Amino acid sequence: MPDAPTQSFFEQLVHGIFRLQNGTPLELIECVPLSEAFAREPGQSFSLMFRGPVGVVMPQAIYSMENETSGTLEIFLV
Predict the structure, then answer these.
(1) 3-state class of 7 per DSSP?
(2) Is 38 helix (H, G, I), strand (E, B) or coil?
(3) How would you write the pLDDT of the chain (78 residues) with one tens digit per residue?
(4) Beta 25-33 vs 17-20: how paired, if at all?
(5) Is the separation of the CB atoms in 44 and 38 below 8 Å?
(6) What is the dihedral angle through the alpha carbons of 62, 66, 26, 33, rounded to the nearest 10 degrees?
(7) What is the pTM of this model?
Protein backbone atom coordinates (compact mmCIF):
# COMPACT_ATOMS: atom_id res chain seq x y z
CA MET A 1 0.00 0.00 0.00
CA PRO A 2 1.31 3.50 -0.79
CA ASP A 3 1.99 5.99 2.04
CA ALA A 4 -0.98 8.05 0.88
CA PRO A 5 -3.44 5.79 -0.97
CA THR A 6 -4.22 7.03 -4.47
CA GLN A 7 -7.33 6.92 -6.60
CA SER A 8 -5.97 3.94 -8.56
CA PHE A 9 -5.30 2.12 -5.27
CA PHE A 10 -8.95 2.53 -4.18
CA GLU A 11 -10.36 1.78 -7.66
CA GLN A 12 -9.06 -1.77 -7.21
CA LEU A 13 -11.05 -2.04 -3.96
CA VAL A 14 -14.46 -0.95 -5.31
CA HIS A 15 -17.12 -3.48 -4.18
CA GLY A 16 -14.80 -4.55 -1.37
CA ILE A 17 -15.92 -4.63 2.26
CA PHE A 18 -14.32 -2.39 4.88
CA ARG A 19 -15.04 -3.07 8.54
CA LEU A 20 -15.06 -0.37 11.18
CA GLN A 21 -13.48 -1.12 14.57
CA ASN A 22 -16.95 -1.91 15.95
CA GLY A 23 -17.46 -4.52 13.18
CA THR A 24 -19.87 -2.48 11.04
CA PRO A 25 -19.36 -3.46 7.38
CA LEU A 26 -19.18 -0.77 4.70
CA GLU A 27 -19.01 -1.56 0.98
CA LEU A 28 -16.90 0.75 -1.16
CA ILE A 29 -19.28 1.42 -4.06
CA GLU A 30 -17.56 4.28 -5.89
CA CYS A 31 -14.20 6.00 -6.37
CA VAL A 32 -14.34 9.11 -8.57
CA PRO A 33 -11.94 11.98 -9.36
CA LEU A 34 -12.65 15.49 -8.09
CA SER A 35 -11.71 18.80 -9.63
CA GLU A 36 -7.97 19.43 -9.72
CA ALA A 37 -8.78 22.70 -7.91
CA PHE A 38 -9.06 20.64 -4.70
CA ALA A 39 -5.84 18.68 -5.19
CA ARG A 40 -2.52 19.36 -3.53
CA GLU A 41 -0.91 17.32 -6.30
CA PRO A 42 -2.33 16.51 -9.75
CA GLY A 43 -4.28 13.25 -9.85
CA GLN A 44 -4.61 12.98 -6.06
CA SER A 45 -8.07 14.45 -5.49
CA PHE A 46 -10.85 11.86 -5.39
CA SER A 47 -13.99 10.89 -3.52
CA LEU A 48 -14.99 7.53 -2.06
CA MET A 49 -18.61 6.45 -1.57
CA PHE A 50 -19.44 3.74 0.96
CA ARG A 51 -22.73 1.92 1.58
CA GLY A 52 -23.52 0.65 5.06
CA PRO A 53 -26.37 -1.01 6.92
CA VAL A 54 -29.78 0.70 6.83
CA GLY A 55 -30.39 2.87 9.86
CA VAL A 56 -26.75 3.29 10.85
CA VAL A 57 -25.87 6.97 11.24
CA MET A 58 -22.22 7.88 11.61
CA PRO A 59 -20.99 11.32 12.60
CA GLN A 60 -18.30 13.01 10.54
CA ALA A 61 -14.98 11.73 11.90
CA ILE A 62 -11.80 9.82 11.17
CA TYR A 63 -12.50 6.08 11.27
CA SER A 64 -10.16 3.12 11.38
CA MET A 65 -11.33 0.70 8.68
CA GLU A 66 -9.98 -2.74 7.80
CA ASN A 67 -10.09 -4.43 4.40
CA GLU A 68 -8.70 -7.87 3.48
CA THR A 69 -6.62 -6.42 0.63
CA SER A 70 -5.53 -3.03 2.00
CA GLY A 71 -5.23 -3.82 5.69
CA THR A 72 -6.13 -1.10 8.17
CA LEU A 73 -6.65 2.47 6.97
CA GLU A 74 -7.62 5.69 8.71
CA ILE A 75 -10.28 7.43 6.59
CA PHE A 76 -12.11 10.72 7.19
CA LEU A 77 -15.83 10.13 6.53
CA VAL A 78 -18.18 13.01 5.83
Answers:
(1) helix
(2) helix
(3) 557 788 889 999 999 999 999 999 999 999 998 877 666 666 678 899 999 999 988 899 999 999 999 899 999 998
(4) antiparallel
(5) no
(6) 70
(7) 0.85
